[in-house]
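To whoever is covering the structure queue this week,

Two jobs came back overnight. Logging them here so there's a record in the thread.

Job A:
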Amino acid sequence: MLKDFTPRLYQQTILGTAASRNTLVVLPTGLGKTAIAFLLAAQRLHLYPNSKILMLAPTKPLCEQHIKSFQKHLDVPEDKIVLFTGTVKPDKRAEMWKDAQIIISTPQGLENDVINRRVKLEELSLLIFDEAHHATGDYAYVWIAQQYEQKSKFSRILALTASPGSDLEKVKEICNNLHIEKVEVRTEKDLDVKEYIQPIKIKWEKVDFPLEFKKVQTSLQECKKSKLLEAQRYGYCNNALLSKGEMLGTQIELQKKISSGEREFELLRSVSLMAEALKIEHGIELLESQGIEQLSKYLNNIKTQALSSKTKAVKNLVLDENFKTATYLTDELVKQKIQHPKVGRLKEIVSEVLNKDEKAKIIIFTQFRDSAERIQENLNNHKNHIFVGQSKKNGLGFSQKQQKEILDKFRVGEFNILIATSVAEEGLDIPKVDKVIFYEPVPSAIRAIQRRGRTGRLEKGEVSILVTSSTRDEAYRWSSHHKEQRMYRTLDKIKNELSLIKEDQSTITKFIEQDKVVTILADHREKDNKIVKELIELGISVNTAQLESADYVISGKVGVELKKKPDFVTSIIDGRLLDQMKDLKRNFEKSVLIIEGEEDLYSLRKIHDNAIRGMLAAITLDFGVPIIYTKNPKDTAAILAVMAKREQDKSRDFSYHQAKPLTVKEQQEFIVSSFPGIGVGHARKLLENTKSIKNLINANVEDLVEIDGIGKKIAERLLNLFDEEYKKN
């Protein structure tokens, strides 16, 4: 099955582990992680020839690269290796899945396909997660892995990354989320990979922090300090020298206090002060690591916002004397065309590289789009191109199609300098990059490794990192270094002592009989599909459709509207809530309102407490809609499951009939489930066995009673219905 590829010894060794255990593979960029993926795919298809392989990657460009690799090195018909992305319509993906043997997909769309049962994870013999460090929190990888482990008959998971991170708990979380049993790590120092490592020369390019900048820096630091001192006097700040991370942590804690109902002036004022301090902290970062033009644009944007914004933090900040001084000094330096010394050194480095080889390829990484634009202006005598993400900020943004076109032009040499933000850090395959330049150090080990990995893939490369002396640049340099060292120590620890705890999760499924199909219809516009995922975890069959009213339909009679607490209060203010309750009552015999969240309902917005109480009274008494309070999506899913079980026990099964079905399959189920005594569960069994509604109508009693769950009474009742003459009243 393998073609035009000879695996290296370390790849064979890793393959041996991955073939028998769910494995996390950590390999430096350029050492062939994708090769291990298609080697294992070939092995699994040999063992299970009728199975499918699924590989997930975070972006479309990455998926397209993997498609090419699999087509090149696996002896599988090209039309059996397919690409799923958001641009492919759901029904089309469902059709493609049926005939495909290898599917490469982005995770978000695939997650929705699993929810709506357009794809069957049980058909997979291998699930591959590229850039596996994303598998934390609510990222789609986590839930897909969980579903696959539950459903697959012969599961195997392969997770790939160059850098899972330095935090022990985070790496454990990744391993737990992806059900990892073994970890395979290789570094540049390992003997079996050493001969394939291309040397990368790293240069730390120090520049002095200009005296003119220090005056601006002092004004901004005094501004920040004054905010934190005031918060300290109120008792909500430990000291006036907090770092950015400490300020963010303090801000989160203060917001929690407000959500729990605390509304003291000192608390509210401290939240505003912390927001002001964080804005100034960002300004200091721009000054120290980026440039005076970037800072000027940022400060003046705050002044513009203050003219129309209702946010007190912005309005108060522009009145601060230190802020005014910093803005004035900054604008004066812009008028004098004073630049950050990094700009001059960057131009020198680029010239040095191109003087040696005018066709040399250079990637310049910077944290901010504004800096990318400034760099492009200063390198306009060289062929260059900006490379940023999709969201348009100030008109700058590229679609995935445009990103691919830019990279293709860079590969073939139409221009030789790529000025990129973080979008180019992860996984892009550009075979020969001679020089990578960091416009600033990054404090993240993952990002530093990803940036460096863009060079030294096929031959030796060079990395230059610009550092402003006596600024946060130096702190970030050492932070990244120590985190990277810690990452390898962490991986060694997990590799040697991997003992993942499989939590015995007691769930509500014990209330649902295994042979009982409980179905809930969810509105497809519900952006938060955590509830849908939780319902599926509880064994509920979930379908999505466009509902005219209600967010969830738990039987033909019962519609449920869901409001998170902030949205509940907002919908009172904008007048939506009463109309939604009217629609709910008009369309359903029984209606329920669920209010979700642990915040204090009366402290979320500037609205009188009695207005909220009055609305709650109106919903309950005037509309007759009961209100249920839940804490979080898990709690909401649990109450929906219990409600659906009770309703469908009474009605014997679920009916869609308050909603418009979408697909042909759903329309068929819609029609058959409307017959007396037939719900979705029986409808599916009837259709699976008879193959069409026409065949069902033409069937006899003997044919129908052979179907599991269909007794003689149901069969006779159906046939009598089909034969009965329609009589007009």
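Job B:
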Amino acid sequence: MRLSGTLLTSINTYTGIRQRGKGVYFRLFFVCIIITSIFIFGCSSIDKGFQTRSISREANDFFNQGKYEASLSKYEQIIEKNPAVADRVLFEMGIIYAYPKNEQKDYQKSLKCFQKIVRDYPDSEFRQDSQMMILQINNVIIKNKIIASQQTQIETSQQEVKVKENEIITLQEMIETLEQKIVSLEHKIFALRTEPADKVLIEKKERRLTLLSKGEVIKTYKIALGGDPIGPKERQGDNKTPEGTYIIDSRNNNSEYHLSLHISYPNEKDKMRAKELGVSPGGNIMIHGIKNGLAWVGGSHAEVDWTKGCIAVTDEEMEEIYKLVPNGTIVEIRP
């Protein structure tokens, strides 16, 4: 039985579209193997003597059952008993060694089978098909080596990335530990401070309150402002935070909002503007903490402007500010 027509058609198809990529190539190679196995093992057994036919049928049965090692063993018996059919048996063994479903497939052993046919059986009808199979299998071996090399590189790169990730995590933990130590140290230094602030700077756009002493920053705080923070306060009930220069003119340690420092709004400029508008300028602008009973809100209060024009900080922060800012301290509120 000649298979070269079938194999040549499949191989020519491969040659015409090999540029489509590795996936197409491998699929076509395995299609060639499967088609060949169907032609070989679907045909009648080798008809060279009764004993040879019997062993051949057993080999075919083992192949169809997926018992490839047993099938190969039977084919080796056929070669021993009937060397005249060795070329066909070697071809069938080469197919089994390269068969996709054979979990123990061995391309090197498959190559040896086909190479032996080409070398030792120059007149064999399987010689041309064997040459084609040698070409195909060599290409597969080369591609497999390339894929294995690429896979190794990928795995190495993944391991290197993992190592770097672990190093980054370790560094982040070290940074967090250092930051905690710095914060703890700052708190200790701050607690020991006895010199008061001589100015409070409030920057509305940055939502920041800064305590200053002789031009040096003592500490900064994140703040919340009035519900309508853009622009200066003009009238009673506009929910705006004033802009200008004022002083702390009083304090309340029993405030509804956990301590408060009263800002001397309105100043003369504020009063004149309100008079021109024919409105009351309003008042009662404070620096204060969280509303009593809601201290658990903590720093998240500053995520939204919620006061009626006052400047709000956390309760803990307010205790610091209350301690360091005496009455008469200048308060500058910038847009």
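Note for Job B: The chain is about 55% helix and 10% strand.

Please reply-all if you pick these up so we don't duplicate work.
Q.
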